[in-house]
Amino acid sequence: MKTRRKIFMAAVAASLMLGASACGGGDDADSGDGLGTVKVAVGIRQTFEFLPAEYGKELGVWRKRGLEVENVYVQGSGQVSQAMASGQAELGLTAGASGVDAILSGVPSKIVGLIGKDFKMMLVVVPKDSPITDINGLRGKTIGVSAAGSLTDYLAKNIALHQGWPESDIKRANIGGLNEQLAALESGATDAFVWSAEAGFALEEQGKGRVLFDFGEVVKDNVFEIIVAGDSAISDREDAMRAYLEGWYETVNHMKANRDETIAFMVKTFEVTEGVASKTYDHDMANLSLDGTIPELNLNGLATSVVEQGITDKKPAVETFWDDRFVPVAAAG
Questions:
Q1: Less Cβ crowding at N or C end of the chain, within 10 Å?
Q2: pLDDT tens across 143-164, in order?
Q3: What is the largest CA-CA distance in the chain?
Q4: What residue spans in the chain does CATH classification 3.40.190.10 cover?
Q5: C-alpha span between 237 and 105 (Å, rounded)
Q6: What letter would DSSP give residue 47?
Q7: DSSP 285-319
Q8: Is 120-214 a domain of CATH 3.40.190.10?
Q9: CB 161 within 8 A of CB 176
Q10: Enclosing H/E stretch for 96
C-alpha cells in the first residue's frame, strides 16, 4: 500500500467518524415536499466541466423536478471525498481516479455518471517565446506539476510513456498552484507546466504563456471527470439522484445547443474574458457527456490508471466503483 494512500485513508476514516451521525437523512433529505435538497461537493469552482453545477440552477432544471440543489465548493478532489465521507454532501463532482481512490479507501459511494472521458481539458503550457514547438521538445525538460501523485503529475509522467521514453526523460517538479507555476515558468525553473484549459487560454491571452498541446491524444481510453453518489443516497433517495442526473445532462445538452448563451454565463460566473470563454467552450464542449454513460473500454482504463498512479497495487473490478443503474440518462426537459 502506498504511503500517500495511507494518509488519504486516515483522513477519510476521520471524516467517516465525524460524519457518522450526519449520514442517512435529516432536514435536507426527502421531506414529502418534492424531493427535498441534495448537497453537491464541487472540487473546483472555475472549470468548464463543472459549469453545469451553477448553470443548471440558473436554468431551473432541478427545481422543476422538485429538487433543490446546494453546491458545496471545496478545494480539490480530496476534499470532495472528505465532504462525502463526513455527510456534508451526497453527491460529488470530481476526477475519475480520485473518486475511485475514495471508494477503495472506504468512502461508501459509487460513480453514477460521466462528466468528461477525455483528458483534452488538460494542457501543457510553455513560455510564450519558448523554442519548444511540439511534444518531442519536452524530452529532458522540467515540467511543473501541482504535487507528487496528483493528476498533473500523472499526466506529465504519461508524456514519457506515450512517447516511448524512459520515465526519467521527463523531470517533474512539484510546484503547487497556478501562481507558483507561472512564477517558476517565468524564472526558468521549469520549461513547462500542466494545467486546465481555462488557465492555459487565459495565459495565452495575457501574453504570459503558450498552449503546447492537450492530453486528448496522450491519455486515451480513460475517465477524466465524474459524478459520484453516496451509497445511502443511491439506496434511500434514488428518485432524487435520478432527478439530479436528469437535470445535469439537460443542462449539458442546453449548453451544446446554446453556445453564445453558455459563453455569456461563463463570462459572468468565472469572471473571464469573452475570448477565453469562447476558446474554452470550443475546445471542451464536445468532451462533455450528454447522457452519463461510460464505455467499458474507458472503465477498464480507469481501473488500470489507479494502479499506474500509485493509488492501489491491484487493479480493482469495475463493479466496485461503478453503478450503471441511472445511465443512459434521459435528459429531455
A1: N
A2: 999 888 778 888 999 999 899 9
A3: 63
A4: 3-118+222-320, 120-214
A5: 23
A6: -
A7: GGGB-SS----HHHHHHHHHHHHHTTS-SSPPPGG
A8: yes
A9: no
A10: helix 96-104
